């Protein structure tokens, strides 16, 4: 019996193991009782021997497959619990049913071996950009063929609809790039998942276009995207002589433009990282100018004040600018005008004063001073953007 040809070449060891498993399964079907069988194929001649075996246990629960240690040691005193006792039995002859059973097991084992090879090969590439050729376009996903060095054919990957950019259309034969973000060993279904919409795609493209990132002179700290529309990426330098923002922009904007083109014209804001969360948020709100900012560390929120004329720009279309700044920083951001922020703080301070006078029965003037101090302490550290900029 010869194994059916497959599109992908498995290791000879895997093929022999599949054959042995298939022959063992076919042999078991010849017996009415449930037995354990092992088949051993001679790798050179192709001949095979069949063995019935019993597992050595302390207490037998399945007499057709188990044997006690005491009984096993009658034949071999070196045996221990967990070892096997084997007797050679007659090997199966290949009638129609035996051949069909063996073929089914072989196909299954070869498929399992192929999937295991895919996982082994691509696991180290997880998080990296891969290039594939579109094989099939479905309503919910795209199938890609990715070159596989260790196999005769190509590996198949999937880009789900949510991992594509809006308005992206591909046809069979198109070459596309994406980040391999998941390698799954499940027995069924897709194994390799590629994305073009996640922040990792933006990060990896900059890693390709900006050599200083690969050299670890510049570090990408965070990224946020509204795929196909706009993105923000935060960078810092480990060498004070190098401007990280300028390096990522490139000569005449060449580097950032290359990334933007790959992402369908996505506008990209390159933001300077700062260890001070408030200053980082001010940077992330660009191109809007922040007048002042108040941090509430307990609630992990920041109130951002801008001049009335800058409010629309600070919020962005459909809240895009502040939403991306929030994702980039990890803080909840509330944008308002300078007057609205002042009014909000006055209202909160007044509420604190009322609590002092109502529940603590203290003098109103003292409550006013104590309440305002308590309010300011609870609000955390406020940073005036204009003062911070002037002080640099």
UniProtKB/TrEMBL annotation:
This is Transcription termination/antitermination protein NusA. GO terms for cellular component: cytosol. One of its GO terms (biological process) is transcription antitermination. Belongs to the NusA family. One of its GO terms (molecular function) is RNA binding. InterPro entries: KH_dom (IPR004087), KH_dom-like_a/b (IPR015946), KH_NusA_2nd (IPR058582), KH_sf_prok-type (IPR009019), NA-bd_OB-fold (IPR012340), NusA_N_sf (IPR036555), S1_domain (IPR003029), TF_NusA (IPR010213). Residues 127-197 form the S1 motif domain. It comes from the Bacteria. It is found in: Cytoplasm. Participates in both transcription termination and antitermination. Monomer. Binds directly to the core enzyme of the DNA-dependent RNA polymerase and to nascent RNA. It comes from Salmonella enterica I. Pfam families: KH_NusA_1st, KH_NusA_2nd, NusA_N. Keywords: Cytoplasm, Repeat, RNA-binding, Transcription, Transcription antitermination, Transcription regulation, Transcription termination.
